[in-house]
Amino acid sequence: MNTNANISTTVFHDTKVIDIQKKSARCNKCTSCILETSSYFSQLSAQAKHKLQAHIDIKKINKKEILYEENFESKYLYFLISGEVKIYKTMSNGKQQIHKLAHIPGDLVACEDLFSDRHGSTAEAIND
User: Fold this and answer.
1) Sequence-distant (≥ 6) Cβ neighbours of residue 79 within 8 angstroms
2) Contact yes or no for 78/121 (Cβ under 8 A)
3) pTM over 0.85
């Protein structure tokens, strides 16, 4: 996994914006647009959004690519630009128990792990 993002605030570890759609179909949103349209950041001042913007990286992942894995170090907060991500736990019999399907632009991924050292689930792109 590529770890290009570096955002440090009192609330977030690090943040990555993920885009799963094919390059030709990709929405060309910039990080400032994401901060303006996502309800998660609506209470931030313009100055705070500007500071945050400088530390956000956009990462494109492909279908079936793993964003993070269960029990691995939790370092980033991800939010979705486009595509779909399934968040699941692997059961002892090898089957996946899906906890969440992130598919709405601005959806947070890994927010349940924000204050944990390790991920409690795995996130995987389910389309491209």
Assistant:
1) 15, 16, 17, 18, 34, 38, 40, 106, 107, 108, 109
2) no
3) no
